[in-house]
């Protein structure tokens, strides 16, 4: 809940705009606002050392700080304090990026009135409280994991898993949750001002974020089942070549602007056999996804299927960034990612899942990779004939 009295620190070098905001806040009837105005970022940092505030109003153009450079300094100085960015119309994209980096909301100066200003301040405080609650939940989870880890025999391995798991939660789950909160807030508070296209974009952001969280939870759940021996076979007759071709077609739809060539070829006789389609999707989907993700623009990925008398071999090859030799030793460990992936997104769960599924099949997975040359994964699975 937002308190009945709200103390605001305004960082704005334009005195006229500062007076306008002061007058607007005086018109608010829902609660009492008190505003302290400073013209420079350094003065704001000094003010935060001397007094406490409920929210910051931040102009992105200051004499001693330009653009987004003000934001990390304020967040580091007062991490629990919500920030609302003030911007001109032509700075809207910059303001949205500021929200992605930690601000709670943004206001276009020419559109500010008393209702918009009060609503934005209240929303920023409430949203920051939600994020602080999530942080507390993560800290509580970490404490519980630590307590549980102390009771287990393999303390070293489980401590490492706990640390990586909590880190993954705070990053890979918090980010889509922040996106959902931001997009939902924009839809709720700016419904009449938003165009149909912007509303659609915000809804797409929410759907995509929810999908990412759901996928992440599914992946963690699958690894948990595999570790506890509960990963079960569900075998049924399947045209393996047709299944692989369909998987390639589905994957091609995700290539978009990557300008990548994906080639499938099948060799040998497969005969009639039974397969677990879900496990195959986890294995091949993750390997294909990685091959595409780490390929260079205008590159190529090949997917080959070899039918033998008692086994089937899947070989997926790319000519991308490759995997450093030191990382290949830990390649199938959950949450491990190679040192050269840079900003390419990922959770480090895909190859771990593929390996768990291959092991459940009683098969083998091998990798051959060289940095700057590319990577080849080979999966050998037993052929279970009808």
From TrEMBL:
Where do the coiled-coil regions begin and end?
none
Tell me where in this chain the PTM 4-aspartylphosphate is found.
59
Q: Which reaction is catalysed here?
A: ATP + protein L-histidine = ADP + protein N-phospho-L-histidine
Q: Which residues form the Response regulatory domain?
A: 7-124
Is the keyword Transport assigned to this protein? no
Which keywords appear in this protein's UniProt record, sorted alphabetically?
Kinase, Phosphoprotein, Transferase, Two-component regulatory system
Q: Which domain of life is it from?
A: Bacteria
Gene3D superfamilies registered for this protein in UniProt: 1.10.287.130, 3.40.50.2300, Histidine kinase-like ATPase, C-terminal domain
This entry's Enzyme Commission designation comes to 2.7.13.3
Q: Does the keyword Ion transport apply?
A: no
Q: Which residue intervals define the domain Histidine kinase in the entry? A: 168-385
Q: Which GO terms describe its molecular function?
A: phosphorelay sensor kinase activity
User: Which SUPFAM superfamilies does the record match to this protein?
Assistant: ATPase domain of HSP90 chaperone/DNA topoisomerase II/histidine kinase, CheY-like, Homodimeric domain of signal transducing histidine kinase
Q: What does this protein do?
A: Photoreceptor which exists in two forms that are reversibly interconvertible by light: the R form that absorbs maximally in the red region of the spectrum and the FR form that absorbs maximally in the far-red region.
The protein's name:
histidine kinase
